[in-house]
Amino acid sequence: MSLLELDEVSVTYRIAAGDVPAVRGVSLSLEAGEAVGLAGESGSGKSSVAMALLRLLPRSARVDGRILLDGEDVLAMKWGRLRAVRWSEASIVFQGAQHGLNPVQRIGDQIAEPLLVHNLATPSEASMRVRELLEQVGLPTWRARSYPHELSGGQRQRVMIAMALACSPRLIIADEPTTALDLMVQAQVLTLIRKLIAEHDISLLMISHDLSVLADVCDRLAIMYAGRLVEAGPASADFRHPYSQALAAAFPTVGDPASRLAPRGLAGDPPDPQQLPGGCAFHPRCPVAIDDCSTAPVDLRDVGPGRTAACLLVGRSLARGN
Ligand SMILES: Nc1ncnc2c1ncn2[C@@H]1O[C@H](COP(=O)(O)OP(=O)(O)OP(=O)(O)O)[C@@H](O)[C@H]1O
């Protein structure tokens, strides 16, 4: 049994202007000990997937499909069970540490909070655990008495990671954990994440718009476009879907400043979810699209060992001369 299984998961926001289909039928599984990356441009629905996993979406969002965490149906959980699952079985590290920390509470108290709220430790056990966690994320133990504004962005992100580890969850969901950081600090935090998931046998679902960041940490990658998965496969192998290829070309290597300044291969903008093009939603931006791409429905299908892609043209690539 997979640790996490998403079966045809959709997220629809209801707003005054109608329904926003942000996530459309995403199926994905994550095995124990595995690190899976979820990539896609801004607005592709990655964060909506992450928030749906622990039912953290606003009330305006409707989630359909099934989400199984260690075999248990997250969408059917009673409130008390859901609270127990959050932090202890799965926790989230959010984008930009500054949003996740309370500015008027000491770092140590914030890390201890999930342990105390879940009755997993006495106050003295919790403060010992806080020291241990600070060491694990590479911060001196005296930092427990600091306030968030006394820390750099990288140090705050380390605190967020310590909080996520506090209750020893089996799964960590990391949503753009390094996006707000400068390149050197980004590399240090990625190294830390790699080390912690290996040492503690934690599964990771990591979300980023930057495929090179994900490829650095993850075993498998799944690519989203306009709310759908367009490709999933091993992180090491070559991508087959034209969108994945364009995204990979836009971010060729971790921390390459040139690629940030001049993303290649991705002209135009993603579609408005309320006005999705027919056929393959990527066809208006696709450099190799043919007429059928604008009309024919495209589902994920096997295109190689452990790899699926939703593109009519994959497999016809020789004929296209690529
Ligand atoms: N509360 C909301 N109400 C209405 N629409 C929303 C809401 N939250 C997100 N959306 C829309 O859902 C779509 C997917 O957004 P989401 O944040 O999941 O994408 P993302 O890939 O994580 O992007 P980013 O990297 O910018 O966070 C977008 O079109 C977004 O505008």
TrEMBL record:
Tell me the superkingdom of the source.
Bacteria
Q: Which GO terms describe its biological process?
A: peptide transport
Q: Which Pfam families match?
A: ABC_tran (PF00005), oligo_HPY (PF08352)
How far does the signal peptide extend, from start to end residue?
none
The answer, when asked if Nucleotide-binding is one of the entry's keywords, is yes
Q: Which GO terms describe its molecular function?
A: ATP binding; ATP hydrolysis activity
- Main localization category: membrane
Q: Where in the cell is it found?
A: Cell membrane
SUPFAM superfamilies given for it?
Answer: P-loop containing nucleoside triphosphate hydrolases
Q: Which residue range or ranges hold the ABC transporter domain?
A: 4-251
Q: Which UniProt keywords apply?
A: ATP-binding, Cell membrane, Membrane, Nucleotide-binding, Transport
**Gene3D superfamilies named among the record's database cross-references:** P-loop containing nucleotide triphosphate hydrolases
Its placement in the membrane is given as: Peripheral membrane protein
**Any one Gene Ontology cellular component term annotated for this protein:** plasma membrane
Please verify whether the record's keywords include Protein biosynthesis. Answer: no
Q: Give the family from UniProt.
A: Belongs to the ABC transporter superfamily.
NCBIfam families, per database record: oligo_HPY
Protein name (record): ABC transporter ATP-binding protein
